[in-house]
Design a protein that fits this description.
The protein has two domains: about 120 residues, 3-Layer(aba) Sandwich (Rossmann fold); about 110 residues, 3-Layer(aba) Sandwich (Rossmann fold). Helices cover about 30% and strands about 20% of the residues. The chain is built from eight helices and twelve strands. Helix 3 links the parallel strand 4 and strand 5. Helix 1 packs parallel to helix 8 and helix 6 packs across helix 7. The longest helix is centred in the first third of the chain and has 14 residues. The chain is elongated, with a radius of gyration of 19 Å. The two termini are about 15 Å apart. Bound molecules: NADP nicotinamide-adenine-dinucleotide phosphate (NAP). NADP nicotinamide-adenine-dinucleotide phosphate binds next to strand 2, helix 2 and helix 3.
């Protein structure tokens, strides 16, 4: 048996674990690593481990200690620290590594995008875009909007935030994706959203809100994503399965 470690926490990583076991389960053991940010993650087939490794050196020690043969980084496009660690640990240990990198979104007719470098620039941009703002961002980025005390914010989360959000006026909507175009259209209309702030994550997983905003003519402030991890990369789970197949001599 060969051993695959998937760095996960995304829909892609879950589908990859499912399909890798379905297609190569006779010769492959699959472990998915989760950072441990979600209280009750969606179940993933195979073995699941939780929590950080202790930087690139810790991940390299894990790869050696668990005799990992193949490493696939299927983390979120904005989870750039773990992706850098994965590239460094793979280089150090010689374990073949692949990263799934979502293709960037392309502007279409009707998009009212304002592209910015970071959350602080996004906060400056939304100031004049209306009072009701939907922040589709991680907790760390919310702080940048705290000074906008006249604005009302919608924040969607899987779990209730462990501490109150640093926002004067906010609604927390608890929901777990994936979200459809209907879901996102309903939110924009029912909450009378004036502008959306989103990370430019790319791929199909979270694009429905971008389509819904375009339909309704609502501006989207898009935060640029970090540099992608080094090659080899593939855009989809299908590409990762093809890479696995080659490595396994299938
Ligand atoms: P990050 O900033 O790149 O990682 C910070 C640290 O968290 C890493 O150095 C590592 O700790 C630990 N870590 C991250 N992902 C891990 C994993 N899959 N398994 C074990 N340890 C992991 O990442 P993040 O933005 O905190 O995201 C954490 C996880 O949530 C990722 O798995 C990502 O796919 C998922 N996620 C993130 C977002 C997002 O917006 N960032 C959205 C959806 C899902 P050590 O250095 O101690 O190893």
């Amino acid at each position: 048996m060969r051993r695959l470690l998937i760095l996960g926490g995304t829909g892609e990583s879950r589908r990859l674990a499912e399909r890798a076991l379905a297609e190569f389960g006779d010769r492959l053991e699959v472990t998915t690593s989760l950072a441990g940010r979600t209280a009750e993650p969606v179940p993933v087939p195979g073995t699941v481990r939780h929590g950080g490794f202790g930087g690139a050196a810790g991940l390299a020690a894990y790869l050696r200690g668990h005799a990992v043969d193949l490493l696939i980084d299927a983390t979120h496009p904005f989870a750039d620290q773990i992706s850098r660690n994965a590239a460094a640990a793979a280089a150090e240990t010689g374990v073949p590594r692949l990263a799934i990198v979502r293709p960037p979104w392309r502007r279409r007719d009707g998009d009212r995008w304002i592209e910015v470098a970071d959350a602080a620039a996004a906060a400056a941009a939304v100031r004049s875009l209306g009072r009701r703002i939907w922040l589709t961002l991680g907790t760390a980025d919310i702080e940048s909007f705290a000074w906008l005390t006249d604005h009302w914010f919608l924040v969607r989360r899987v779990d209730p935030p462990p501490a109150p959000l640093p926002l004067s006026q906010a609604e927390i909507l608890l929901a777990r994706g994936p979200f459809t175009l209907d879901d996102e259209r309903r939110i924009l209309k029912e909450r009378r959203i004036d502008a959306v702030v989103s990370r430019a994550s790319g791929g199909s997983a979270t694009i429905a809100k971008i389509h819904a905003a375009r339909e309704l003519g609502i501006p989207v402030v898009l935060i640029a994503r970090p540099a992608p991890p080094p090659e080899p990369t593939v855009p989809t789970v299908d590409g990762a399965l093809a890479w696995l197949g080659l490595r396994l001599g299938a």
